[in-house]
Design a protein that fits this description.
The protein is α/β, with parallel strands linked by helices. The chain has helices spanning 10-18, 26-36, 51-65, 83-96, 113-122, 131-139, 156-161, 165-172, 190-199, 230-240, 253-265, 279-290, 301-304, 324-331, 352-362, and strands at 41-44, 76-79, 104-107, 126-129, 150-154, 180-185, 204-207, 218-224, 246-249, 270-273, 296-299, 314-317, 341-347, 367-369.
Amino acid sequence: MSFSNLGLRAELLRAIAEEGYDTPTPIQAQAIPVVLAGRDLMAAAQTGTGKTAGFTLPILQILSTRAATSRVKPRVLVLTPTRELAAQVEESVRTYGRHLPLKSLAIFGGVGLVPQIRALKSGVDILVATPGRLLDHLSQRNADLSGVEILVLDEADRMLDMGFIPDIKKIIALIPKQKQTLFFSATFSDDIRGLAASFLHNPQLVEVASRNATADNVQQRVYHVDKSRKRDLLIQLINDHQWHQVLVFTRTKHGANTLAEKLENAGIRSAAIHGNKSQGARTKALADFKSLKLNVLVATDIAARGLDIDQLPHVVNYELPNVPEDYVHRIGRTARAGASGQAASLVCVDEHTLLRDIERLLKRDIEKVAVPGFEPDPSIRAEPIENGRRGQSRPPSRSRSTPPGASRSQPARGTASRQNAPTHHSGFRGR
């Protein structure tokens, strides 16, 4: 199948071709016709499989063929949990809508209100927003959602985790009841299914990957190592294997800062990205990493969810996540759009239970690799990990009242952090 078989207009097909794509991914092939038919949609696929284009393309098609009732009010609202994802989605709208007379805007915290107010007052067709910043604008009457025809909840599972659902309900109350609603999520947990049932009307279900599946073309490895020697092992792996672009995950903001500084001192160009960094600093760090001015980007889970980096070859779990599903999201940063990638996890004795939980979720054992000189000391016993959860105990299950991100220094509401030269290939991811 090609994009021309999906009924997309010539202007969209031209933009897709200019980006070097010709064949939709499974999620796009299934979701686009459903959205074009006007149905509510509940869609899930592995991260990196093109969910963003799965809704931006049909939305652009619908708006371009349907007369607008207002030149000022947004016709489409896309809610995202983090700033970087909001910017990424709006970039996708601009990229594939470049030949259509439609206006889009991303609004999120960390930047000035005035330019956003000015853009809102001038009118936009597609508004992409984080919940907190949107509520700020709504409280000041800078935005009017009474003209919204299509609502998209992107990364709905992360919005649930981060405690945004009350804000989302406030926003939805200001949107017309007669609308099309699209749910896009990396996973379909029972909580997500329950949430979708409260927002969606007779939705079409699209699920192209098994729950919590990881990309088949990610080579996963575990390196058992003492906690005190993780930094040295990481440096050796980067140097010995000449890894030129590595996304490294830590549990905490302080840990990200410390590791980035240590890597810099070892001659490896590095930067940290997390919620305490200014939006300008995060944007620069990500741009430098994409352009290979930096070799290593050290990130927390919340900062990295949704980062879109073409052909990222390596992801390293410097510390395992406390929530097993976050492992899937982390390693999904590599092996995107059909490319291959490697995911390495540096695991100390404190994290053995976390590793077992991850392997139980994946229903498989991850390959263990020994590096001479870094064998763990068997006399070291497990100790409490940084956020207060112990390596010996199973981490708490997800819940709305205690989102996992809260114990990892979660940013304030609506200011959560997040965040390409095209090549010709058949797996169209969409930015």
